[in-house]
User: Fold these one by one.
Assistant:
Number 1:
Amino acid sequence: GENVEQHPSTLSVQEGDSAVIKCTYSDSASNYFPWYKQELGKGPQLIIDIRSNVGEKKDQRIAVTLNKTAKHFSLHITETQPEDSAVYFCAATPIASGTYKYIFGTGTRLKVLA
Amino acid sequence: NAGVTQTPKFQVLKTGQSMTLQCAQDMNHNSMYWYRQDPGMGLRLIYYSASEGTTDKGEVPNGYNVSRLNKREFSLRLESAAPSQTSVYFCASILLAESTDTQYFGPGTRLTVL
């Protein structure tokens, strides 16, 4: 089955700097890769996603890149702000089957220092 | 439109007690999921229901049962709670349409088993 590894487990950056979180996956059948942000005491919320037919996707200060050959994908946050502080999860799933069994990484706690 | 709702928010049980966690979504989604979240282990899938009337095991189903009561509701039951089931439980749902893959999460139930 699918296995997703996420690094680093914690990340501290100065406000205004960039943050990068990396995930690797094992199942070449996975073709959908969402990223979730979880604030304290809340459920995860989708912030960006990418399908395997696309190499990069950007939404304002957030971008995701995918390297299918190496089976890894990364989240990039530019111009970080204190409100970006949260736990971030990556996930991978094959969507062809229609069941969407997401496999999540173990999470990265991002701290943005003012 | 409340999205995904979960009850209760907090629960304390004694070993051997039983309880049911409730989940409901008002987005007309087809698939629903139960996850548990433990420190350093990300989100692990317990059970899921791809559509009304079907349920399947995820990664960590032992000690749990589920019921897809109707399209809106998906409950998780602990028949005889154990301390190892202390965790935060999240319910999620997804529409399952080609252009809409987002999995929406509820706010979570924090369960402590003494």
Note: The mean pLDDT of chain B is 92.
Number 2:
Amino acid sequence: GAVVSQHPSWVICKSGTSVKIECRSLDFQATTMFWYRQFPKQSLMLMATSNEGSKATYEQGVEKDKFLINHASLTLSTLTVTSAHPEDSSFYICSASPGAGGYEQYFGPGTRLTVT
Amino acid sequence: AQTVTQSQPEMSVQEAETVTLSCTYDTSESDYYLFWYKQPPSRQMILVIRQEAYKQQNATENRFSVNFQKAAKSFSLKISDSQLGDAAMYFCASLRGTSYGKLTFGQGTILTVHP
């Protein structure tokens, strides 16, 4: 149980275009979902926290207009990178928690974004 | 704010031997949780072990155990009988009880297992 999926697993897009990444909790309802960014051989950096039906809470320094997060249902959150640039190329990971406290978090397999 | 520090960028161990990964953290709160996550080359984050700060007993999961020293704010991970499949990047993380799930991760330790 407690499986989180991400789609796509790898995406290449051209500079200036937008790309959407989906995060789904397959066998539980996710009260809260989190989006992380990870550069090679580095740690995970939390970008934002989203709760179903509410606006996402962004971490300091994360551009909310560039990284649009929508938590449309208890099993789906999406991250849209708008007007992507090569510096947005990274590995994006989502996690989902069935509770508000986040004590249990389940991670998706990640999405590799390459912007050319 | 919480901080988590892993001072060992890389570690190596021989198969079947024991290795300990270090982690220190800093928090002013009394209600918090500590975790070790494993990230293999597939990059899927896998929970290895977790510890509630209010519990004095060290958590254990099969070959993985922690040494939780609350006063020293230390939370090391011991891997016994290391296996080739243990090779991965390991992250120590903390979670404040009031942070609504915001994990704070350490820098990570790359573990190599030699056959």
Note: The radius of gyration of chain A is 13 Å.
